[in-house]
Write a structure and sequence with these properties.
The chain has 286 residues and is of the alpha/beta class. Helices cover 34% and strands 21% of the residues.
């Protein structure tokens, strides 16, 4: 490993503790690598708000079930280090598996509760238990930073991490950062690299559907779902998993006020998720 000059790369618990010792107002960005412009936006947000920025790069196996895409998940470590340096990170924590899980898969894990069993949890029932467990471990390995930054692209994950940190009294500010899109609307994701040329041309239909629902939000929940669904049903090769409208906290959508329109679909070998904020039944939400 040859890190770019100008910041510290830590690979062990002792190294990251030493790198962060005496640092003030630490902001953490937790990633699985294969960094793209969305991750860069997280690092920039942390840089703007915090005195010290640490980025973790750890491809967490416990959030992948058997048969999911762990083996296909893209890896680009040297490029990831360059991105961290360019965006002003101070420390990169890149542990190997037995640093995070010294005894193998942990016998004590975080249960995501009912909110982890809806939406993505219906189709990936073990996913959020693995996510929350590794987030809890990484935040503690980083000394419980002042803040940690998560993208709104994985909106259910953001809500669950906030709930865990609040319920278990971590004392870490969880900051949501708006997702970034390609010019044609496709939400930035590391998994986009797995799309074939043909599937990449189809994938922006998810955002077109969400935007169609967003445009009619003043007419209420049924209008939103019908408008979005009408776009998706016309897309060849797209297998819809869910299209749901929820409240901002993933509870039932209100009759009037802010809500979240969320979608997941399979396209070729890739699974894509996306979401947008909507304001139901009234003027724009503040």
């Amino acid at each position: 490993m040859t890190p770019p000059a100008g910041f510290t790369v830590a690979t062990t618990r002792a190294e990251v503790a030493a790198a962060l010792a005496g640092r003030s107002a630490v902001g953490a960005v937790l990633t699985m690598g294969a960094l793209h412009d969305g991750h860069r936006a997280l690092i920039r947000s942390a840089r703007q708000r915090c005195d010290t920025v640490v980025v973790s790069i750890f491809l967490n196996p416990t959030q992948f079930a058997a048969g999911e895409d762990l083996d296909r998940y893209p890896r680009s470590f040297e490029g990831d280090l360059t991105a961290c340096r360019e965006e002003g990170a101070d420390v990169v924590f890149a542990p190997v598996l037995d640093v995070v899980y010294p005894d193998g898969y942990p016998s004590v894990t975080v249960d995501p509760g009912q909110l982890g069993r809806i939406l993505d949890g219906e189709f990936r029932p073990t996913h959020f238990g693995g996510v929350l467990t590794v987030v809890a471990k990484l935040l503690h390995l980083l000394g419980l930073p002042a803040a940690s930054f998560f993208g709104e692209k994985d909106y259910q994950q953001l809500v669950l991490v906030r709930r865990m940190v609040r319920d278990l009294d971590f004392g870490v500010d969880i900051v949501g950062v708006p997702l970034l899109r390609e010019p044609d609307g496709l939400a930035l994701s590391s998994r986009n690299r797995n799309l074939s040329v043909a599937d990449r041309a189809i994938a922006p239909a998810l955002y077109r559907a969400l935007a169609a629902g967003q445009r009619v939000a003043g007419s209420g929940e049924l209008a939103v779902l019908e408008a979005a669904g009408a776009v998706l049903v016309a897309v060849p090769g797209l297998t819809l998993e869910y299209l749901r409208l929820t409240g901002p906290d993933l509870g039932p959508a209100p009759a009037v006020g802010p809500a979240r329109l969320m979608v997941a679909a399979r396209l070729g070998t890739a699974r894509l998720i996306d979401n947008v904020a909507v304001c139901l039944g009234g003027p724009p939400c503040s």
